[in-house]
């Protein structure tokens, strides 16, 4: 077998490429090798978001304090990602489909899927805004103008084109995009070194010193990514072969996250180097110095804009893909009329264009705190169901996680109660009852604490019709069932 084959997926029909098993299991015949999965995930590694997030953390806690939230994110996301990705690979299911059997029920999972999709709307706009800001700098267009929205729309349509055929077209884009990205980045660093006074780690200091509050704020930013990076990886990890162990899935996550951490440190470097070249108050200069689209356009000119466009397209194909999986699942249980996965991507593009003018870059900290509350609570409930309620307490089969309508309940009230409680506790932080930076931590702990006792008290009755342990998870699931799990 040639080395090249390790970076390609199996052949499949155009229809399956487009639909990408959005509402069914991935069969064994369509599993990918881990290098091919990791290649697709490199689009996430080089996202402009990481430059911006690294810069924001750097301005909060300086050097070497910034290594604390970065290390927490790498370790936490590797562990959570290894667990969730292996569950997905064993079951061949996306997280929205897993949620039907793991704690939420068919219709309950639609709520989790909607929460998941909201994340991708934000990230889609975030990445697109970075590119638009760079183009606006070059073309002299105001970033809040109608012309900037048109620029955003054009770049968004390029991303839509490359995400249309799912994993297969994304694999092609990432395979050829990565070398170009690296070449342009090196050129950018050379131009930066020749034209600007570089700020080394010794100059990455916070003016008023690092406080406990600032460190918790940085950790809160990281906490929003601990689970979300696992979610992204799992959308592709369901294509991993079932024979891959926890160590194997953890290896995929660790390699990806170590590369991300390098990009984040470079974001700190760019922020402290460029902040002196922007005008205005400190807060305005920090916002500009954490906008990589603007920075690369200033440093590299037209080449910087090309670099930003390439980077944005590589990550936004992933945002569109994962967002469409979540919305496909939500609609699948809410309506008998099927809507193809690709049309949900079109909806995400339209929403992104409509919401672009609000300039989401200035709300990154608040958004990550709120989405961290929702996504972290959801996933920790899912993990507690699989490892505690199923594997440890044997309240339901762990070999096969059922997801088909008629075999799972529409609503698992244990999961819905736990999710509502966790989010309510997190909302108190958003409302100012306690510091916001504690909110996502509190919510993700409360969810499982509520869920496990409720499931024990219900003796697993909320799952629906038990699935046989001997049933092949990859068996044909298109045959109809006459069993009604009831409410």
From TrEMBL:
<feature type="transmembrane region" description="Helical">
    <location>
        <begin position="367"/>
        <end position="389"/>
    </location>
</feature>
<keyword id="KW-1133">Transmembrane helix</keyword>
<keyword id="KW-0472">Membrane</keyword>
<dbReference type="InterPro" id="IPR030191">
    <property type="entry name" value="CodB"/>
</dbReference>
<feature type="region of interest" description="Disordered">
    <location>
        <begin position="467"/>
        <end position="487"/>
    </location>
</feature>
<dbReference type="GO" id="GO:0005886">
    <property type="term" value="C:plasma membrane"/>
</dbReference>
<feature type="transmembrane region" description="Helical">
    <location>
        <begin position="436"/>
        <end position="457"/>
    </location>
</feature>
<feature type="transmembrane region" description="Helical">
    <location>
        <begin position="176"/>
        <end position="199"/>
    </location>
</feature>
<feature type="transmembrane region" description="Helical">
    <location>
        <begin position="59"/>
        <end position="84"/>
    </location>
</feature>
<keyword id="KW-0812">Transmembrane</keyword>
<feature type="transmembrane region" description="Helical">
    <location>
        <begin position="35"/>
        <end position="53"/>
    </location>
</feature>
<feature type="transmembrane region" description="Helical">
    <location>
        <begin position="104"/>
        <end position="126"/>
    </location>
</feature>
<dbReference type="InterPro" id="IPR001248">
    <property type="entry name" value="Pur-cyt_permease"/>
</dbReference>
<feature type="transmembrane region" description="Helical">
    <location>
        <begin position="214"/>
        <end position="234"/>
    </location>
</feature>
<comment type="similarity">
    <text>Belongs to the purine-cytosine permease (2.A.39) family.</text>
</comment>
<feature type="transmembrane region" description="Helical">
    <location>
        <begin position="410"/>
        <end position="430"/>
    </location>
</feature>
<feature type="transmembrane region" description="Helical">
    <location>
        <begin position="292"/>
        <end position="310"/>
    </location>
</feature>
<protein>
    <submittedName>
        <fullName>Allantoin permease</fullName>
    </submittedName>
</protein>
<feature type="transmembrane region" description="Helical">
    <location>
        <begin position="146"/>
        <end position="164"/>
    </location>
</feature>
<dbReference type="Pfam" id="PF02133">
    <property type="entry name" value="Transp_cyt_pur"/>
</dbReference>
<feature type="transmembrane region" description="Helical">
    <location>
        <begin position="246"/>
        <end position="272"/>
    </location>
</feature>
<feature type="transmembrane region" description="Helical">
    <location>
        <begin position="343"/>
        <end position="361"/>
    </location>
</feature>
<dbReference type="GO" id="GO:0015209">
    <property type="term" value="F:cytosine transmembrane transporter activity"/>
</dbReference>
